[in-house]
């Protein structure tokens, strides 16, 4: 079955990002297709490569990036939510006149239309958040 | 049409669990995850409301239950424990998924 996942929470609020990651892994292991994972609201904080958690702490960004590389997942960060929270890719940094970018490998920045499309194209949309 | 309702907040913290119980019907299932697992415990001020959901299948995510030190013998009768693979199965077996956040 074709599934999409919506993540509305960052790594350090409650448990939503952990739940979403484990659900996505389980769905892939069962042979389902993950059409897209969309990061919205504070969920965009999963997509910065500049976080440096302690070594004995989990690193959700790296886990998402690794899962993306393994399964060619489409990890999309909402552009408006990302700009508010200082998550930029190379193009956006240049467009906004900022001195650097921090988008993590495997993530891409796009618009809310990508969430609408995920809802239309997928058999189920599973929401994790606050 | 069957619907899977996911609950991720304790009924002692937010009213989302109670709101969900007011909307579920016989074709629906409820899956308690994250802090929502506290709603599956028997002997609490909320237990009777959960147990009164006639015909609604009740599930709890095992890893989240264990992370909070809740053993299976403390669950309301009839609550089934599932792992993440079981979570995925519940999503695909129901027509829709509604997250009560």
What report would you give on this structure?
The complex is a heterodimer of chains A (130) and B (101). In chain A, helix 1 (16-29) links the parallel strand 1 (2-7) and strand 2. Chain A is α/β, with parallel strands linked by helices. Chain A has a five-stranded parallel β-sheet with strand order 4-3-2-1-5, with helices on both faces. Chain A is 36% helix and 20% strand. Chain B is α/β, with parallel strands linked by helices. Chain B has one domain (3-100): Hypothetical Protein Ychn, Chain: A (3-Layer(aba) Sandwich). In chain B, 27% of the residues lie in helices and 22% in strands. Chain B is built from four helices and five strands, in the order βαβαβαβαβ. Chain B has a five-stranded parallel β-sheet with strand order 4-3-2-1-5. The longest helix of chain B has 10 residues, at 84-93. The two termini of chain B are 22 Å apart. The A-B interface holds A 1, 3, 8, 14-16, 19, 22-23, 25-27, 29-30, 32, 123-130 and B 6, 8, 33-35, 63-64, 83-85, 87-89, 91-92, 96-97, 99, 101.
Short description:
With 130 residues, chain A is α/β, with parallel strands linked by helices. Chain A contains 5 helices and 5 strands; from the N terminus they run βαβαβααβαβ. Chain B has helices at residues 16-21, 47-51, 62-67, 84-93, and strands at 3-7, 29-32, 57-61, 80-82, 96-100.
């Amino acid at each position: 079955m074709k599934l999409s996942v919506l993540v509305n929470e960052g790594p350090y609020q409650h448990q939503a990002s952990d739940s979403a990651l484990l659900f996505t892994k389980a769905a892939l292991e069962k042979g389902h297709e993950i059409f897209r994972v969309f990061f919205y609201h504070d969920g965009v904080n999963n997509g910065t490569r500049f976080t440096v958690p302690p070594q004995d702490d989990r690193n959700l960004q790296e886990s998402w990036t690794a899962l993306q590389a393994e399964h060619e997942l489409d990890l999309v960060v909402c552009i408006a939510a990302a700009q508010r929270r200082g998550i930029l890719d190379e193009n956006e940094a240049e467009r906004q006149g900022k001195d650097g970018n921090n988008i993590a490998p495997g993530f891409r920045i796009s618009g809310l239309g990508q969430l609408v499309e995920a809802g239309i194209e997928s058999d189920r949309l599973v929401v994790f958040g606050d | 049409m069957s619907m899977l309702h996911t609950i991720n907040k304790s009924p002692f913290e937010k009213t989302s669990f109670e709101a969900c119980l007011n909307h579920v019907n016989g074709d629906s299932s409820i899956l308690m995850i994250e802090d929502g697992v506290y709603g599956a415990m028997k002997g609490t001020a909320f237990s009777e409301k959960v147990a009164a959901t006639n015909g609604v299948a009740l599930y709890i995510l095992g890893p989240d239950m264990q992370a909070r030190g809740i053993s299976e013998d403390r669950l309301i009768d009839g609550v089934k424990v599932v792992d993440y693979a079981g979570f995925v199965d519940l999503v695909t077996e129901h027509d829709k998924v509604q997250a009560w956040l």
